[in-house]
Amino acid sequence: MKTTLELHGAQTGNCFRAAIALEEAGLSYTPRIVDLSIGEHLRGEHLALNPAGKVPVLVEKEEGREPFILTQSNAIILHAAAKTPVRLLPGNERDRATAIERFFFFVTDVIAVSHAAFSLRASSAQEGQKILADRALATLETAERYVAQAEFMAGETFSAADIAAYTITRSMKSDLPWSKLPNLLAWFDRIEGRPAVKRGLEAFDRVPARIDPGKDKREEKAR
Ligand SMILES: N[C@@H](CCC(=O)N[C@@H](CS)C(=O)NCC(=O)O)C(=O)O
Q1: Nearest-atom index, ligand 1, CA of 12
Q2: Distance 57 CA to ligand 1 centre (A)
Q3: pLDDT tens column, 159-172
Q4: What is the pLDDT of residue 206?
Q5: pLDDT band at 1, cuts 50/70/90?
Q6: Which region among 2-16, 48-62, 197-211 has the lowest average model confidence (pLDDT)?
Q7: Is CATH 2.170.130.30 what the domain over 93-192 is classified as, yes or no?
Q8: How far is the CA of 132 from the centre of ligand 1 (A)?
Q9: ω before 56 within 30° of 0 (cis)?
Q10: Ligand 1 pocket mutation, candidates 11, 14, 17, criterion most atoms within 8 A of CB
Q11: How is 142-183 classified by DSSP, letter by letter?
Q12: For residue 48, which of 128, 145, 167, 180 sits 20 to 30 Å off, Cα-Cα?
C-alpha cells in the first residue's frame, strides 16, 4: 500500500524538528509551505488540518483510507521513529528508554520553558519572561554532561534526543556561554554537519508549493 507524507510548515524550530526527523528517518515527504506572515495558518484550508492554527502538520495519505493527520512536532518525530525503528530510537529497551528520557528533557525542560518565555515577550510580565528564559538556558547548559563522554545526547547513536536538542540549541546559540561548554559545542557542530539535518533546515525554503486544496482534485482530473 503506497503511503505519501506531506509536511505543512514554515521556517520555525518546531517545523525544522519535524522535517529533520523525517529526513533522518529516511522517509520521503513533500514539504508544503504555510506562510505565517500572511496568516495562511489561520485560513480555512489549514484550519481543516489543524483547528489550532499551528504548524507543523503531517498529513499521511494511503489509498482507500482517510488521510491521517498529526499535529505536534514531537508526535511527528515519534511517528517517524516508529516507522523506521532504530534510526531515531535505539532497538535495545534500556537504550531506547534513555533516548526517550533525554528527548523529554529537551522537550519539556528546555523547549517548553523557552516557548513560555517567548510567549511573554510582548506582555508586561518582563520579569517573569526573564526568569523563564534564564531557566531554559541554564537547563540547556547542563546538557554538556550528556555529551562529555558520548558522541550523541543519548549515547553512541544519533536519536530523537539529538533532534530535540539541536533545534533549541540553534535558537539559543547566541546566549550560550560556549567557552564553558566545549563538548556541547563539538556535539552541535557534529549535528549541524549531518546531511539530513541540513536538508531538514532547508525543507521550507526550497519548495514553492503552497497549500492549495484544489490541487489534488485538478491533478486527479488531469490523470
Ligand atoms: N507544541 C506545538 C507548537 C506548535 C506551534 O506553536 N507552532 C508555531 C510555529 S513554531 C505556530 O504555528 N505559530 C503560529 C501561531 O501561533 O499563530 C508543536 O510542537 O508542534
Answers
A1: 10
A2: 10
A3: 999 999 999 999 99
A4: 54
A5: confident
A6: 197-211
A7: no
A8: 18
A9: yes
A10: 14
A11: GGGGTTSSSSBTTBSS--HHHHHHHHHHHHTGGGS-GGG-HH
A12: 167
Q: Which three cell numbers stand for residue 70?
A: 498529526
Average pLDDT, the chain: 93
The residue contributing the CA closest to ligand 1 atom 5 is 54
Determine the pLDDT at residue 2. Answer: 87
Q: How confident is the model at residue 177 (pLDDT cuts 50, 70, 90)?
A: very high
The ranges assigned to domains in the chain are 3-85+200-222, 93-192
Pocket of ligand 1 (CB under 6 A): 12-14, 36, 41, 53-56, 72-74
Report H helices in 5-62: 13-25, 44-47
The dotted CATH code for 3-85+200-222 is: 3.40.30.10
* 3-85+200-222 and 93-192 agree in CATH topology: no
